[in-house]
Amino acid sequence: xxxxxxxxxxxxxxxxxxxxxxxxxxxxxxxxxxxxxxxxxxxxxxxxxxxxxxxxxxxxxxxxxxxxxxxxxxxxxxxxxxxxxxxxxxxxxxxxxxxxxxxxxxxxxxxxxxxxxxxxxxxxxxxxxxxxxxxxxxxxxxxxxxxxxxxxxxxxxxxxxxxxxxxxxxxxxxxxxxxxxxxxxxxxxxxxxxxxxxxxxxxxxxxxxxxxxxxxxxxxxxxxxxxxxxxxxxxxxxxxxxxxxxxxxxxxx
Length: 253
Prior knowledge:
This protein has helices at residues 7-10, 20-30, 41-47, 49-57, 72-84, 98-115, 133-140, 146-160, 172-179, 216-222, 231-234, 239-251, and strands spanning 11-14, 36-40, 61-68, 89-93, 121-125, 164-166, 184-187, 226-229. By secondary structure, the chain is of the alpha/beta class.
């Protein structure tokens, strides 16, 4: 990612809503404030590729967050279709293994040429922000620390030809040190320093179901390239003001 990218380009609003109309309304309110969005399983299941088309028509770059995890052939075919739809970034589960990750990277390159589209950035999801060390060990069966496992999966993703990874704010610094400046780091679990007000005037919970979180400014300072921000914007009483406040926080000296 260019180091000259503006704060507005680094923040991706998560369109975790249940209908295309809701997504379009949110994007309309954020037009001119942010330039990118994340489309995940909820909206894509509800609206399909039309969600990507709607966002792109409004001038937003799309991070397709479907976390593909299947046999290599199936993942490669899915990445081919995502590239055809014009997303600028997509992800797979790095825990799917080297062959699966390599199939994704190769499919993106091939499809970009086939459809005359820019090749999307391909990321490996490391450890979900909803997991802490106890859950990783007891429930997933990984005996190492979260940080060690994140670094292991990131190294595997790079070996496979992926461009970066998705990781919580807590792993940004060690990832940047281990993977270098060109490795793209996308970070969810972003919570503003100031509490967000919900429409019912109650404060938005700072953690929700994510346990490894940070403020936008702290994540950017640690070395993140993109910040995925969901409920602090989408659930705010004034999403435009909430997004503008995050951008201002990132741009403050």
